[in-house]
Design a protein that fits this description.
With 74 residues, the chain is α+β, with helices and mostly antiparallel strands. It has helices at residues 27-32, 56-65; strands at residues 14-21, 38-44, 49-53, 69-72. The longest helix has 10 residues, at 56-65.
């Protein structure tokens, strides 16, 4: 089920974390990802990508270090 949800209802500091297939990324990002097949993106409530990181734990730590409230989406 693909249901759209307005994350801004949770406040300005809400971000979401989702997995990204490295193969779907630009070539220069694929090269930087090394042998990983999946990395994680952090997005704000408007959908703007804020960061790409190696794993889910790092994504959550990064968000919290910047006073953001992370949540996972699929």
């Amino acid at each position: 089920m693909n249901t759209k949800f307005d994350l801004s209802a949770f406040g300005d500091n809400m971000v979401y974390v989702k997995s990204v297939a490295v193969a779907d990324l630009p070539e220069e990002v694929q090269e930087a990802a090394g042998d990983r097949t999946q990395i994680f993106a952090v997005h704000n409530a408007q959908g703007e990508q804020l960061a790409l990181v190696a794993d889910r734990t790092l994504a959550f730590v990064l968000a919290r270090q910047h006073d953001m409230q992370p949540m996972t989406v699929h």
